[in-house]
Amino acid sequence: MRKGYSVIEALNWYAYVSNNPVVRIDPEGLDDIVIQIEGEAALGLGPDVSGGLVFDTDNPEESGIIGTVGAALGATAGISVGVALFFGEAEGTGFNLDLNAKFGSFSIYFDEKGDINGIGVSIGVGLGVSRGVVTKSGTLPFIDLADYVSGAVEKAVESTPKPPLTPSIPSIF
User: Fold this and answer.
1) Of 70, 82, 69, 79, whose CA–CA distance to 36 is shortest?
2) Domain residue limits, the chain
3) Which residues make beta-bridge pairs with 122?
4) pTM, whole model, 2 decimals?
5) DSSP codes joined into one string, 1-62
6) Residue 157 and residue 3: Cα distance in Å, rounded?
7) The domain defined by 31-157 carries CATH number 1.10.10.60
8) 55 near 81, Cβ under 8 Å?
């Protein structure tokens, strides 16, 4: 540590991003960023669902549409739009803890081992506290979605009846 500085002053807070916080946010490529719509309703046990877009910083080709389903335990109801930062992969099995206030919510996401895997904030309407007992997330990568749409269009074009190549001559008999 440099002499005459506190621990906070002595740390290089931009070393993590190679001293370029404008261009780089995750040089190791470990984080996933999720923009989501979330809804839950529980009085005891109830559904906990969300969907949105995930931006995978370590494998951009895995970025896509993410969906999460699970069960919530608590007393809560709400729907919101928000953003979450995952310190690893957003996909997989885990659980979450949500605190829903009148105009938004705060979430902490845990992986299957119980380690904190991410945090999120949302703006919306709701009230209550819940714990996602178990949730399962999966992603449909944009590249796979493009391949699927391309294949569906090709199949539709191939199945369209084609006009005959030679003109038909009407028969008089």
Assistant:
1) 82
2) 1-28, 31-157
3) 82, 105
4) 0.65
5) --TT--HHHHS-TTGGGTT-TTT-S-TT---EEEEEEEEEEEEEEEEEEEEEEEEESS-GGG
6) 73
7) no
8) no
Euclidean distance between CA atoms 85 and 89, whole angstroms? 10
Q: Which candidate, 100, 85, 93, places its Cα nearest to that of 134?
A: 93
pLDDT attached to residue 13? 58
Q: Give residue for tokens 């931006």.
A: 55
Q: Are 75 and 128 in contact (CB under 8 A)?
A: yes
DSSP state of 113: T
d(C-alpha 97, C-alpha 48), whole Å: 11
Per the CB < 8 A criterion, the answer to whether 93 and 119 are in contact is no
What is the per-residue pLDDT across 13-62, written as a single tens digit (0 to 9) for each? 566 556 666 665 555 556 888 998 888 888 888 888 888 999 888 778 88
pLDDT in tens, 52-94: 999 888 778 888 998 888 888 888 888 889 999 988 888 888 8
The single residue listed with the structure tokens 């003109």 is: 167
pLDDT tens-digit map of 94-118: 888 888 777 888 888 888 888 898 8
List of residues 6+ apart from 16 with CB closer than 8 A: 27
Tokens 């084609």 found at:
162
